[in-house]
Amino acid sequence: MARPDKAAGVSELVDSFQESSAAVLTEYRGLTVKQLQELRRALGENATYAVVKNTLTKIAAEQAGVEGFDALLTGPTAIAFINGDVVDAAKGLRDFAKANPSLVIKGGYLDGKSLDAAEIAKLADLESREALLAKLAGGMLASLSQAVYLLNAPLSQAARLAGALQAKAEQDPSILAGGAGEPAASAPVEETSDEAPDAEAPAEETPAEESTEA
To answer: Is residue 96 part of a domain?
Structure first.
């Protein structure tokens, strides 16, 4: 490869490493062009599958700050650069490799951390992001339903109590003055001669003192 083309190839790989959330290195020896096309479709729209040169990939990985690739860059290499759901892409690679043993998953990286083939297989066994979100949404709806039930029960009881009090108040307005349909307690009047009670003494002063002593 001429030097300008080599530099362009390295730059393109560096961009792919930096823009992707994960990458999986594979060996595609024995796969036909048609099978490679099928693999690209299996990975979906959020992943690209590119045949690369080991020497250029090693340089690009170093420039992108990706470690742990040197030992994996042997034999015919192709990389799946993943920009979407990593679990879905890992499942696509695993299922395709089961149907086409010529595809060998060698390792990769996720969020800057290197992964071996076994760790990628574990990723493929996880539930997809959509499935986890669906479960989370279901759990949140169930919790909200319980919360609504718990809130509505006391509120409905309070509404019934308020309605009952309002109806009773309409029948006996004295309830609103603090009485419960009964006349308020008043201080006993001493039997005296025709003298009027002291106008300055509040009528309910004595009950207040009695209740305080009680």
So the answer is: yes
For the entire predicted model, the pTM comes to: 0.57
Answer yes or no: is 187 within a domain.
no
SS (H, E, C) the chain: CCHHHHHHHHHHHHHHHHHCCEEEEEECCCCCHHHHHHHHHHHCCCEEEEEECHHHHHHHHHHHCCCCCHHHCCCCEEEEEECCCHHHHHHHHHHHHHHCCCCEEEEEEECCEEEEHHHHHHHHHCCCHHHHHHHHHHHHHHHHHHHHHHHHHHHHHHHHHHHHHHHHHHHCHHHHHCCCCCCCCCCCCCCCCCCCCCCCCCCCHHHHHHHHHC
pLDDT digits (tens, 9 = 90+) for 36-93: 999 999 888 889 999 999 999 999 999 998 888 888 899 999 999 999 888 988 999 9
